[in-house]
Amino acid sequence: MRAFLTTLLQCSLSMTLVTLAYAAVLPLLSKRYAAKWRYLIWLVIAVGWVIPFRPQFDLFPVQETPIPVNPGLPAPRSGGSPPPAVTAAGEAVNALTAVPFWWAPAAIWAAGAAGILLYHTLRHIRFMSMVRRWSEPVTDLESLRILDGLKSELKIQVPIKLSVCQSITSPVLVGLFRPAILLPPIRIPKEKLSLILKHELVHFKRHDLWYKTLVLAASILHWFNPVIYLMARSTAAQCEISCDALVLDGADSQQRRQYGEMILDVVRNNAKLTTAFSTGFYGGKQSMKNRISAIMDSKKKKAGLMVLCVVLVAVITAGAALAANQKPSDSSASESDKQEVVSLVEGFGGALKMVSLTAPTEIAAKSIEEQYAQYVTPELLAAWKADPQSAPGRRVSSPWPDRIEITEITPSGKGEYTVSGKIVEVINTGVFAKYPVTLQVTKQDNRWLISGVTVQEESTTESTVSE
User: Fold this and answer.
1) For 426, what's the count of Cα atoms within 13 Å in the CB-facing half-sphere?
2) What is the number of other CB atoms lying within 10 angstroms of the CB of residue 127?
3) Under a CB-based contact definition with an 8 Å cutoff, are residues 201 and 151 in contact?
4) Residue 228: phi, psi to the nearest 5?
5) Strand, coil or helix: what is 165?
6) Which long-range contacts (CB under 8 A, 24 or more apart) does 146-155 make?
7) Do residues 34 and 245 lie in contact, with contact meaning Cβ atoms separated by under 8 Å?
8) What digits encode the pLDDT tens for the residues 24-48?
9) pTM greater than 0.70
């Protein structure tokens, strides 16, 4: 959940920039580019809001290489446990990271998203209940003939019901799966009825109800971001303007004037959208002003394919810069993990001398439990207790394993490291031998633990004594 919220916030911030940039240049684009392309660009942006996950581009790639560890560093303390400072720090980190600080914002986001979803769902259910109660099928043959003629013109084969609904004041298209056009209970002249029906049929043919659902999903995901509502309003406005443009394709100035008058007559009662899953003629006074202006604009506009491509690239790569800015923190986290792994392996190396493998099996198994439990995974600990001779430890009274000198730490996967080094055996007079060792370290339950140990039987150094 924490990763999802982080990604969602990154998406919200990056898409805010894209949305505001497009909204700023939209008045200029409206003078040059066709309405359907402006609408399509808004839909691409809406998809960017809905899909929070982006391809992550490493703008400054750095190849991860094994980290050499200076063998000349001071050896760890002898004994079966790591230094007190390391232990205290580790416990503090584990305690800190174990507390789910993210649960509060996660709960707030989930509550907000669920609340908005519930609101729109209940509103739609209530609206459709009213429609079923107060609607009557249109039986006028002339109206049905006009509908069938327009469906043939637009090459629509899907059955679409035509009804009069007493509870609405402007025409709407409803039904994602069972489409229906609802008319208000007012007398509509046949010439205006034809324009109204064509308008709603164009909405249906373009799948605008599904696109409205897409925008609603974006609003639910990013309900906390005020820019999402700007995107939703602008998308709805461009949806109606582009629909008008298709209805008026090839129309002269007189026909455009009649169409504008028809829209003004239909929305005279300031009818508002009654459900998010429907179309509507009215979108506010400013929206209506822009819409009427677009209706009367008969100038030919260019396709906005180039602008669409630019916006598409911006949407896809919007999170790349933010991801690049996160690299330092990721690197810091990686270094912190490696330091914890070093402390773990060194503590384990200091415990080796405390486990005598020459003792009876039960005693050796108990010693393994006491000395190694804090360093290794439960699975590895169980295997060593069942067969103590398979575990590293003290096999003779002298020489004995004193520590592990780490030479290399290599990431081997997410939450996994391979540690290479040498087990240093000593006698009372100094270093006796060094045996190569490879340890697999993994993260379990927010703790770094050793999951595998491989020790070579032959030493790589000559036996030495201190002067």
Assistant:
1) 16
2) 21
3) yes
4) -65, -30
5) strand
6) 146/190, 146/193, 146/194, 146/197, 147/181, 147/197, 150/194, 150/197, 150/198, 150/201, 151/201, 154/198, 154/201, 154/202, 154/205
7) yes
8) 988 888 888 888 888 998 999 999 8
9) no
Which pLDDT belongs to residue 91? 45
Region 2-13 average pLDDT: 82
What band does 96 get if pLDDT is binned at 50, 70 and 90? very low
Pick among 3.10.450.540, 3.30.70.1530, 3.40.50.10800, 3.40.50.2000: CATH of 335-455 = 3.10.450.540
DSSP state of 1: -
**Helix axes of 208-221 and 35-50: crossing angle, nearest 10 degrees:** 40
* Dist. CA 320–CA 309, nearest whole Å: 17
Q: What H or E segment, with its residue span, contains residue 285?
A: helix 285-296
Q: How many other CB atoms are there within 10 angstroms of residue 410's CB atom?
A: 13
How far is Cα 204 from Cα 107, in angstroms, rounded to an integer? Answer: 37
Percentage of the chain lying above the pLDDT 90 cut? 40
What is the pLDDT averaged over residues 95-106?
60
